[in-house]
Specification:
single chain, 16 strands, 5-stranded mixed β-sheet, alpha+beta, 5-stranded antiparallel β-sheet
């Protein structure tokens, strides 16, 4: 018996609701039968006593009410309740069917009620079982009536009813099975959705970035704890429905959002994702206690930062980076289009990042200052030494002019070295121009080479410039001239001096990256030196300052380009497959 019952599906709340619907339908049918039996026209069709039929219907009504009450007070043993109810239905309807003279009373249609119920709530095997019992009853009664009345059509009629029952039971069971599977799938998807929503709420509540959601009228719809912390107590989660413009401290944010919307009125919501703005919000949150203080000044002027140190915030202002997305159509929400647009604002507190960057900048400045002091001290020592010797020999300077000239040259060389160091540092502080119109690269490179040849007085055929490839760039011409001159000065020190030993040419690689190559025929830079090549004050030359390549790379970065030393195989030289070193300026951006 346990193995038989195991084929039943696990009863869900919908099964119990369907069982109660079956109970209510049974009560209605029992009442209808009692009303039918009280009609005078039906009293003559009964084989047995008419009063007995009324008693059967009365007992059926009481049993139906009992089953309905049982389901309410005892929602257990679903299988037993269902089978007992279906069995009672078939017994009562069979008695009424037989008592009304078989098919003459029209009660055979009532068999569809329990058969449809069992086909919905039970497996198909059980539905066919009860359908077989009813069909056997109809066939047996039909055969008996046909022998009694000598009418063979009664058997055929019973057979048709039996076949109809099987067809109805099968169709109803298949439809019910599909609905049950869909309900189970919907319940599974619902559970997954609830779990996903719980995970989303947990992630949003725990994430460092603040999220603030505004409705179409600018009222606060939702926010996470990080946003509440960043807004410094000016807006809290319990203030749902408050208009952002009504909070005085948040007026800068309102103005910024309004400016973004006006400036990007024609853009799609996805195009707004790249729109970033910065705003400063007064902070009234006492983070040492984790609550909003009553005054505008926290009790402690310090707070813990995300970098593990305590930083002072003298003005008690939170600097926020804002990014906005507008959810306004069915593509964003997956639902039908709604007139209520929502604005999702992503906030990032950059105060600690700015403080950390400032400390890194100060630390770098300290290292740079120490390096400059070291570089300046050596020339000053030489100048001081030469001046001391000149002071000692000043009385005999007419007798030793060669010695005096040598000492003066030491002073002049070191003064020039100091001047070059100062010029390189000043070049680093010069920002790139942002209003440069795109221009072709190679004509400016050729002009740089010609000026360099004239100033340095080198052989005109020493530097070869190729014009086969050219493209437009947006690069500060003054910075590009400084970079090319610096790289040419570096190349002259290592080139062989033959005609064309230094080459400059542009190329576009297969990936579409636009490059300028500066290459000489001298020995390639070793990998050990390559690792420190662009570090400030690192030099392999006795007279170099160590700032040339560092300055060239920084100027490239200021113009959103990249300078690097690479080892490549020249495709034009088929006989030599060894990679050769060269400086490469990438004009396609830092991400190319």
């Amino acid at each position: 018996m346990a193995a038989t019952f195991s084929v039943f599906p696990e009863p869900t709340p919908s099964f119990w609701r369907s069982l109660q619907t079956l109970n209510i339908s049974r009560v209605i049918i029992a009442i209808s039968l009692l009303l039918l039996l009280n009609l005078r026209s039906t009293k003559d069709i009964w084989v047995f006593s008419h009063v007995f039929a009324i008693d059967i219907c009365t007992a059926y009504l009481i049993s139906s009410l009992g089953f309905a009450i049982l389901k309410v007070v005892h929602t257990r043993h679903f299988i037993l309740q269902l089978l007992s109810q279906i069995t009672l239905d078939i017994i009562i309807i069979s008695l009424l069917y037989l008592g009304s003279g078989g098919g003459r009373g029209g009660f055979n249609i009532l068999f569809l009620f329990p058969l449809a119920g069992v086909s919905i709530l039970a497996p198909l095997l059980w539905a066919f079982f009860f359908c077989s019992l009813v069909s056997l009853l109809l066939l047996s009664e039909g055969m008996y009536r046909s022998l009694e009345l000598d009418d063979g059509s009664l058997v055929s009629q019973a057979g048709l009813f039996g076949a109809s029952y099987f067809a109805v039971v099968y169709v109803v069971n298949r439809l019910a099975s599909n609905l049950i599977r869909q309900e189970q799938l919907a319940a599974l998807r619902g559970n997954e959705l609830v779990m996903q929503q719980a995970i989303n709420r947990l992630v949003i509540a725990d994430m460092d970035d603040g999220i603030l959601v505004l409705d179409h009228s600018g009222r606060m719809f939702e926010m996470n704890p990080a946003a509440e912390r960043m807004l410094g107590g000016n807006l809290k989660k319990g203030m749902i429905g408050v208009k952002l413009a009504d909070v005085i401290a948040l007026r800068p944010m309102v103005d910024t959002l309004a400016d973004i919307q006006i400036r990007n009125a024609g853009k799609t919501p996805r195009e707004l994702e790249d729109e970033i703005s910065f705003v400063s919000i007064p902070c009234y949150l006492d983070e040492s206690k984790g609550s909003v203080s009553g005054s505008a000044i926290p009790r402690s002027g310090f707070e813990h930062s995300s970098f593990g140190f305590r930083s002072e915030r003298p003005h008690f202002v939170t600097h926020l980076k804002l990014r906005m997305i507008i959810v306004k159509d069915a593509n964003e929400t997956g639902l039908q289009a709604s007139a209520n647009d929502y604005t999702v604002i992503f906030m990032q507190d950059v105060s600690d990042i700015e403080n950390h960057a400032q400390q890194l900048k100060l630390a770098s400045m300290g290292r740079l200052t120490a390096s400059i002091a070291h570089e300046v001290r050596n020339p000053l020592s030489s100048i001081s030494y030469a001046a001391s010797l000149l002071n000692e020999d000043i009385a005999h300077i007419e007798d030793n002019k060669e010695q005096a000239k040598r000492l003066l040259k030491i002073v002049d060389d070191n003064v020039g070295r100091l001047n070059q160091l100062i010029e390189d540092i000043l070049k680093l502080s010069r920002k790139a121009r942002n209003d440069v119109e795109p221009y072709f690269l190679m004509p400016l490179v050729l002009q740089c080479v010609q000026d360099f040849v004239e100033i340095k007085q080198v052989a005109p055929d020493l530097i070869a410039v190729a014009h086969e490839v050219d493209f437009k760039v947006s690069f500060d011409p003054g910075h590009l001239t400084e970079i090319v001159s610096n790289l040419l000065s570096n190349a002259i020190r290592y080139a062989s001096g033959r005609s064309g030993s230094i080459r400059l040419y542009a190329m576009i690689n297969p990936g579409g990256r636009q490059e300028l190559h500066i290459q000489d025929d001298g020995p390639a830079i070793s990998f050990e030196v390559r690792a420190h090549l662009f570090e400030p004050f690192y030099t392999t030359s006795r007279m170099g300052t160590g700032l040339g390549l560092y300055m060239a790379r920084e100027l490239c970065l200021n113009n959103k380009a990249l300078l690097d030393y690479e080892y490549r195989v020249d495709h034009s030289d088929a006989e030599d497959s060894e990679p050769k070193g060269r400086f490469v300026i990438n004009f396609s951006g830092l991400n190319a």
